[in-house]
Design brief:
Blueprint (H helix, E strand, L loop, with lengths): L10 E4 L2 E5 L12 E5 L4 E4 L6 H10 L4 E5 L11 H8 L2 E4 L16 E2 L5 E3 L4 E6 L8 E5 L4 E5 L17 H11 L6 E4 L8 H25 L5 H8 L8 H17 L3 E4 L2 E4 L6
Parallel strand pairs: 4-5, 5-6, 6-7, 11-12
Antiparallel strand pairs: 1-2, 2-3, 3-4, 8-9, 9-10, 10-11, 13-14
Helix pairs in contact: 3-4, 5-6
Length: 282
């Protein structure tokens, strides 16, 4: 589903589903963070984005009704820092999960209500199922409106690219498991945290899973050819299809693959050096 990806304009994607893109384009954010504004008489906002005053002003100005709830998918700095100011202006209830320890986490997000996996968030106009989807972030949540089949995925699934899995909070095993669980839902559209809505949801999820498993195979091949290597030394071999300027980011996902292989009993580390496990293939 191709749309106008300019920031600053409220776009109706479906009845009761509007999107406002934050003005934070970049290599990691694409056109910017998607802020979803749900409902008409009483409004829920998903991921108000970074703490940019102009964007917060527009959320308040363009919301079709009073903002009663703010839902967060995860606490990375392009998704949740605007919550505090938006809640202060509107009195809205803040929902999500607290920031875990580690870098690149928004510690300013303090939910009024911590959401549990499988919980149903209801308003007079719609309901959302809360789905805990760790992998990109340990506290990551997706929100599923089963009445229209729309899944709001934050950074679990984005349009046009894959996401970085950055240990220790990012976990490749959890990520793949979370993707597999979403295949059991009756999906019509994926509404990602960045980019256009995706109206072939199962194809999109299947592509990500296949891509990750293909990358895992390349990591195994790199380990076979280059035993006792650091993750940085393995990047040019396992990510030889990626621009060298992205190698630092690629190393984070490569490490996530290595940790998954270790958990699977297929790789072992000695200090910061990695080799295939002696039991691999048995």
């Amino acid at each position: 589903m191709e749309t106008d990806l300019a920031s600053g304009t409220l776009l109706q994607l479906a009845p009761g589903v509007n999107r406002l893109i934050a003005p934070n384009p970049g290599m990691m954010t694409g056109p910017g963070t998607n802020t979803y504004i749900l409902g008409e008489k009483e409004v829920a906002v998903i991921d108000p984005g970074p703490a940019i005053d102009g964007h917060i002003d527009l959320i308040c100005e363009l919301a079709p009704g009073p903002i009663k709830w703010i839902l967060v998918t995860h606490t990375h700095p392009d998704h949740s820092p605007a919550v505090a100011a938006l809640a202060e202006r509107t009195g809205a209830e803040r929902l999500g999960r607290p920031a875990p320890d580690g870098q690149h986490q928004d510690k300013t997000f303090e939910p009024d209500r911590v959401l549990a996996n499988g919980e149903i968030f209801r308003t007079a106009e719609f309901k959302l199922e809360v789905i805990h989807t760790p992998g990109h972030a340990s506290n990551h949540l997706c929100y599923f409106n089963d009445e229209i089949g729309w899944l709001f995925t934050g950074d679990h699934i984005i349009s046009g690219s894959t996401v970085v899995i950055d240990p220790p909070d990012g976990n490749m095993s959890d990520y793949l498991d979370s993707l597999e669980r979403l295949m059991n839902k009756i999906l019509a559209v994926i509404a990602p945290g960045h980019g256009d809505p995706m109206d072939s949801p199962y194809e999109a999820i299947d592509w990500i899973i296949k891509h990750r498993l293909e990358r895992e195979a390349k990591v195994i091949a790199a380990l076979e050819e280059n035993p006792n290597s650091t993750s940085a030394e393995l990047v040019p071999h396992a990510y030889n299809d990626v621009d060298e300027r992205l190698y630092e980011l690629a190393e984070r996902s490569l490490l996530a693959h290595l940790l998954k292989l270790e958990n699977d009993g297929r790789a072992a580390q000695d200090g910061d050096r990695w080799s295939l496990s002696m039991t691999v293939g048995i």
